Amino acid sequence: MSFTKRQFVAAALALLPLAQAQQPATTDPGNPSLKTYKCSKSGGCVAQDTAIALDWNYHWIHTVNGYESCTTSSGVNTTLCPDAATCSKNCVIEPANYTSSGVSTSGDALTMHQYVKSNGVYGNASPRVYLLGSDGDYVLMQLLGQELTFDVDMSTLPCGENGALYLSEMSGSGGRNEYNKGGAAYGSGYCDAQCPSELWKNGTLVPGGSPYCCNEMDILEGNSRANAYTPHPCSADNCDKGGCGFNPYAQGKTNYWGPGGTVDTSKPFTITTQFITDDGTQTGTLKEIRRQYIQNGQVIANAKSSAGIDSITEPWCESVDSAATTFGGLTTMGKALGRGMVLIFSIWNDASGYMNWLDSGSNGPCSSTEGNPSNIISQDPDTHVVFSNIRWGDIGSTFNAPGGSGSTTTTTAAITTTTKATTTTKTSSTTTTAGGATQTQWGQCGGQSWTGPTACVAGTTCKVQNPYYSQCL
Ligand SMILES: *[C@@H]1O[C@H](CO)[C@@H](O)[C@H](O)[C@H]1NC(C)=O
Ligand SMILES: *[C@@H]1O[C@H](CO)[C@@H](O)[C@H](O)[C@H]1NC(C)=O
Ligand SMILES: *[C@@H]1O[C@H](CO)[C@@H](O)[C@H](O)[C@H]1NC(C)=O
């Protein structure tokens, strides 16, 4: 993610500032609720009382007793905000206006628009929001040895747009402190693996801005024409900025993802991403980041390249990404996933590179120029993404697994629908091939409830990684 744009939404004041020397201007940060589901093998899926927080930089920060902005187009007003303590005396932060930022929620669905119409004219909104728990801190999702599933509608995202759902290892409180009592509820503390320059680094004002790197796991960066999922592990002050992403088109599967494709992006579908450890536990070493889709009640295995690549594994990362080992590869990514990461949703486009890294050249069918935001705003001003039915937990618990196990005891209509829709499918997230077939290098060849091939392609042998997983190596 190289999204550093700042937008200061000049919303009308709902309430006058109440307190001095404290940053929030009002007591209610106004976070829209977004229901999510936590799932387990034993208990099914349970609705969570979660909400969203729009990023800090989309909030209006102004003088305590007036309406003068404490921020400028390039940073902070250094007279009002020479340091964190003085800034907190002089300035307050307003709740965000989610409507004018292109964000709305309904039940378990989140809709985000790139552009918002105001007085008949479309303006750039490009929102970024974080998942907030009922305690006012971010939800720290611990996904090591677990899986994350959600539904997405990307049908209106053209070339050059990026509807993103990803995780960063932000502080759970958003870096809340005595000068920033709002913290996570006000969307503070953003970091990612591109080490963006942050004015409020981990919630504390640094007037000139300072790079803030942290582990990032991109679950989905995509539009209706292309997509990728990518781990970005970090050291203390640098990251694997490129990462070893998996993009079906770049693997030669040019008809896999798109309108009318194997995954038909003209309609909504479900994405499951599994973080498989070497011993099948939530404390093991991350060995593989596996992917599957569900559409029209059918499980769609991830695309497989002619070389047999259909998943992100350490050997594959090391072969395609020279920086992978420098930052500890999947092992580092797994540790961050084990500690807990913040779930982030965004929609953005890219005025300098037109998102070519995602959807053009060898990465997708888009021309090198059609992702220019000036094309998008003139041709697709209503472009938006809808994320819904977000659920996470034990492997196999967030969608229906073989033989009717899995989320059969779910508590919500939405999940029940998904369960029903998938009861006819035979396998969970596996690299299935016809019976008697030979598995390719890196592919799965055994493990508990594995029904796929157990023979490996010549030159490789089936090695037991853990009770749940054997691999052709
Ligand atoms: C910064 O704030 C001071 C004090 O309110 C004001 O006089 C000055 O014009 C502001 N500077 C900018 C660049 O907005
Ligand atoms: C938020 O923005 C919308 C649309 O731009 C506007 O109609 C509304 O009055 C704003 N709400 C507040 C509380 O300022
Ligand atoms: C961020 O701030 C929180 C709260 O002050 C603190 O506990 C945490 O260690 C900080 N994280 C980093 C990486 O500085």
How many helix segments? 6
Bound molecules: 2-acetamido-2-deoxy-beta-D-glucopyranose
- Helix coverage percent of residues? under 10%
Query: What is the CA–CA distance across the termini?
Result: 33 Å
Structural class designation? mainly beta
Q: Report the biggest beta sheet as strand number plus sense, adding barrel if it closes.
A: 10 strands, mixed
| Low-confidence parts | 1-22, 401-436
Tally of extended strands?
30
Q: Tell me which oligomeric state these chains represent.
A: single chain
In percent terms, what proportion of residues is strand? 25-35%
Radius of gyration: 22 Å
Which shape, going by the Cα principal axes? Answer: globular
Q: Calculate the mean pLDDT score and round it.
A: 86
Briefly, what is this?
By secondary structure, this protein is mostly beta strands. It has helices at 84-90, 314-320, 329-339, 356-359, 373-379, 413-422, and strands spanning 36-40, 44-48, 51-54, 61-63, 91-93, 103-106, 109-113, 115-118, 121-124, 128-132, 140-141, 146-153, 162-168, 197-201, 204-211, 216-222, 227-232, 257-258, 263-264, 269-277, 286-295, 298-301, 312-313, 341-348, 384-394, 438-439, 444-446, 455-456, 462-466, 469-472. Helices cover 10% and strands 32% of the residues.
